[in-house]
């Protein structure tokens, strides 16, 4: 994701009228100067968004840790008039940048005294502004939900786990997987949660004394219940309660000696740092990079060095050294064996992940049998992550003591009585499976309402968890509106949005949309690569999504598309003409290819075929065109780590909420739920998991086009256009926040 950040900072800097320099080889390049510091132009960062690592290099630099080294670095910056620095790296790199900033005035004074620069030059460059972007696969920096590179590292880990799972099942093996994380267990924790690992070791929460006996007992118990494999995940920094390291080989030997299982160790190592960045990392880095430039433009002499962080789906600025201090406090708590506090300092998300993992990893008998029965079903088109949500909902429901039913084939299956009770182990191995294991259909309840009511009564269903897309939301709304006619429908209902279109009201993200964006992105990467040999070619790619342009827009940002046409952002023939002219100009540069995305229902008349004919005709003699319709490949494939984790969390939170509601509406041996707040959509809204009554959401829904009336992601459209070509105004981008932007000099620095 670092290259996406470099691209965004460079293009945003040029866009606002600044000179932008790329500093190669990190702080070493800053100290050495010369050809390590080069001015960049718009094309300098073309075709790098899909590359792993960093094209401007990175190096550890002892010289920069000394004042003499920093003095040389200051001179190199002053010679080029650079007074703004964007640093992409971990907390060490960012701390070094803050020290450099605090010494800046003294360094310039020393350069004047040595006669290396004049007083006038020192006065012109009297202030150094710093902004940081956190690049770390460990996600170990406090103050941001995710650091650049973490999601891509999780993709690499899950690819390995999925591959290992098949061989482990074939040979009935136990695998011990060691992942990175010397001081932070985030990668181990999320991959453990997303793979349903049998046992997990993280440095923030060492196992209790005697863990060897308990682990072997649980592994043996799992095998005795029919499981053919065991997965143990261990962070490289795992320790026991006394602070002694726990190695992967020690765990392997323990399993072999005590249980006699065929056990293998796999150390993932630097595989986790490599490969192509995920869609999440590309979009995150692009947002952060643009925000970093705005932070530098708005900096004043009193502004402290800041770091651009992610909070929910928003980029925010936080004081750099405050975040560094909290990050150090976590390590201090671990060193002093205050492990519970260390987990809390990591943040709510980390603590929540840990608690959910402990809930779902091993079956714990319910303290008492509850009087409630719940049914779970999938509705609408299949979406990755549905099975993860079903698995966690089933298991947490069993922990609560409820009777849990699953329904095949959606509302149609409920009408036909395709209902069966499930146990804990019936959903084992579902986490990594794509599509819908229960089967799903688009049928709405109004077509078979009486039969649905009959089976709700027959199976005594008091809670209904519906996992699906717009049809799931619309179906539950129909059931709620029929409560006046059928008392059996006065039950607690919850919708978990799961659709690649991301068009369900009440949530910023639907299950399956991240997997779909990654699938579309990978296809577009290949399409772009195919054009590298055949010059002067424009690809018009059609994506799914109905009337919702989320998939096209986010994929467009992730692949660096030249344009993405969507229904929500109306366009005219004049816009199409401007795009053709932009591509014609582009063919005169070294980047002789184009990529245009089109949402399947973006315009009634400007169809994919029309765009192909228009571009082919207008570009005749300059470029040729090809069409690609991605189709159902966007619905398939194994779920991404995000969708597995998100589905797991939503399943748990939905059932806990339903259990609470059932207790409130239970009286005299029966459930009677007829208020609006007993039928909700669960969703992530900014940073909070919220429950929104379907009756309230009805007021803000465009049913004709199956869309929420307001969609947060539309503010990404300007970013897409700006990073593709600078034909929009700056005031449009920042919504009038700044009336005038002066010409400033920016630099990007990348180091550890």
From TrEMBL:
Pfam families: PFK. The keyword ATP-binding applies. Residues 1-295, 374-657 form the Phosphofructokinase domain. Its cofactor is Mg(2+). One of its GO terms (biological process) is canonical glycolysis. GO terms for molecular function: 6-phosphofructokinase activity; AMP binding; ATP binding; fructose-6-phosphate binding; identical protein binding; metal ion binding; monosaccharide binding. Keywords: Acetylation, Allosteric enzyme, ATP-binding, Cytoplasm, Glycolysis, Glycoprotein, Kinase, Magnesium, Metal-binding, Nucleotide-binding, Phosphoprotein, Transferase. SUPFAM superfamilies: Phosphofructokinase. InterPro entries: 6-Pfructokinase_euk, ATP_PFK, PFK_vert-type, Phosphofructokinase_CS, Phosphofructokinase_dom, PKF_sf. PROSITE patterns: PHOSPHOFRUCTOKINASE. GO terms for cellular component: 6-phosphofructokinase complex; membrane. Pathway: Carbohydrate degradation; glycolysis; D-glyceraldehyde 3-phosphate and glycerone phosphate from D-glucose: step 3/4. HAMAP family: Phosphofructokinase_I_E. NCBIfam families: 6PF1K_euk. This is 6-phosphofructokinase type B. The gene is Pfkl.
């Amino acid at each position: 994701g670092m290259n996406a950040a470099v691209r965004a900072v460079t293009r945003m800097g040029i866009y606002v009228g600044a000179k932008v320099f790329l500093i190669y080889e990190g702080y070493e390049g800053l100290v050495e100067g010369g050809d390590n510091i080069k001015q960049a132009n718009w094309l300098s960062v073309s075709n790098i968004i899909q590359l792993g690592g960093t094209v401007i290099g990175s190096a550890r630099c002892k010289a920069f840790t000394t004042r003499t080294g920093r003095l040389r670095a200051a001179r190199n910056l002053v010679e080029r008039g650079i007074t703004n620095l964007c640093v992409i790296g971990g907390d060490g790199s960012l701390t070094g940048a803050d020290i450099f900033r605090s010494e800046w005035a003294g360094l310039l004074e020393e350069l004047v005294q040595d006669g290396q620069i004049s007083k006038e030059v020192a006065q012109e460059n009297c202030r150094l502004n710093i902004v940081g972007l956190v690049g770390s696969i460990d996600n170990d920096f406090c103050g941001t939900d995710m650091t650049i590179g973490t999601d891509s590292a999780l993709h690499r880990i899950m690819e390995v786990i999925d591959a290992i799972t098949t061989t482990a099942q074939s040979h009935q093996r136990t695998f011990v997987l060691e992942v990175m994380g010397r001081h932070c267990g985030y990668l181990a924790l999320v991959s453990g949660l997303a793979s349903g690992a049998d046992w997990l070791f993280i440095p923030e929460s060492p196992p209790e004394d005697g863990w060897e006996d308990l682990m072997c007992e649980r592994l043996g118990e799992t095998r005795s219940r029919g499981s053919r494999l065991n997965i143990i995940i261990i962070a490289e920094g795992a320790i026991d309660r006394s602070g002694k390291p726990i190695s992967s080989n020690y765990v392997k030997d323990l399993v072999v000696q005590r249980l006699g299982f065929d056990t293998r160790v796999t150390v993932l190592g630097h595989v986790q740092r490599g490969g192509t960045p995920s869609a999440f990392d590309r979009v995150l880095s692009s947002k952060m990079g643009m925000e970093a430039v705005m932070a530098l433009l708005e900096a004043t002499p009193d502004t402290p060095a800041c770091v651009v962080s992610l909070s929910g789906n928003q980029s925010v600025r936080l004081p750099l050294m405050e975040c560094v201090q909290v990050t150090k406090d976590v390590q201090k708590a671990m060193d002093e064996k205050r492990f519970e506090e260390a987990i809390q300092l990591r943040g709510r998300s980390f603590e929540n992940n840990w608690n959910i993992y402990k809930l779902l990893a091993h079956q714990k008998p319910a303290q008492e049998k509850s009087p409630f029965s719940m049914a779970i079903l999938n509705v609408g088109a299949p979406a990755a992550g549905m099975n993860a949500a079903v698995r966690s909902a089933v298991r947490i429901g069993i922990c609560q003591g409820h009777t849990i039913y699953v329904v095949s084939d959606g509302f149609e299956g409920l009408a036909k009585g395709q209902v069966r009770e499930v146990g804990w182990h019936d959903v084992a191995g579902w986490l990594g499976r794509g599509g819908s294991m229960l089967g799903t259909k688009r049928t709405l309840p109004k077509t078979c309402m009486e039969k649905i009511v009959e089976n709700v009564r027959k199976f005594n269903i008091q809670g209904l968890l519906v996992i699906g897309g717009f049809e799931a939301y619309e179906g539950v709304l129909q059931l709620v509106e029929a409560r006046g006619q059928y008392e059996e429908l006065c039950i607690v209902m919850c919708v978990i949005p799961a659709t690649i279109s991301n068009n369900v009201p009440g949530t910023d993200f639907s299950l399956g949309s991240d997997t779909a964006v990654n699938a579309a992105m990978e296809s577009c990467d290949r399409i772009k690569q195919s054009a590298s040999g055949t010059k002067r070619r424009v690809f018009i790619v059609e994506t799914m999504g109905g009337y919702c342009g989320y998939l096209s827009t986010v994929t467009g940002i992730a692949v660096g598309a030249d344009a993405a046409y969507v229904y929500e952002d109306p366009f005219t023939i004049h816009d199409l003409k401007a795009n053709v002219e932009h591509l014609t100009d582009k063919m005169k540069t070294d980047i002789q290819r184009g990529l245009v995305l089109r949402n399947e229902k973006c315009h009634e008349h400007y169809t994919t075929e029309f765009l192909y004919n228009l571009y082919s005709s207008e570009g005749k003699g300059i470029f040729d065109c090809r069409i690609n319709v991605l189709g159902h490949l966007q619905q398939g494939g194994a779920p991404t780590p995000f969708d597995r984790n998100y589905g797991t969390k939503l399943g748990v939170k939905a059932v806990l909420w339903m259990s609470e509601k059932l207790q409130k509406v239970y009286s005299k041996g029966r459930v009677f739920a007829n208020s609006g707040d007993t039928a909700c959509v669960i969703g992530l809204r900014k940073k909070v998991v919220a429950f929104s009554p379907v009756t309230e959401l009805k007021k803000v829904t465009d049913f004709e086009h199956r869309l929420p009336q307001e969609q947060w992601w539309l503010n990404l459209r300007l970013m897409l256009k700006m990073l593709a070509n600078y034909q929009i105004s700056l005031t449009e981008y920042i919504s009038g926040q700044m009336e005038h932007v002066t010409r400033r000099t920016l630099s990007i620095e990348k180091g550890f």
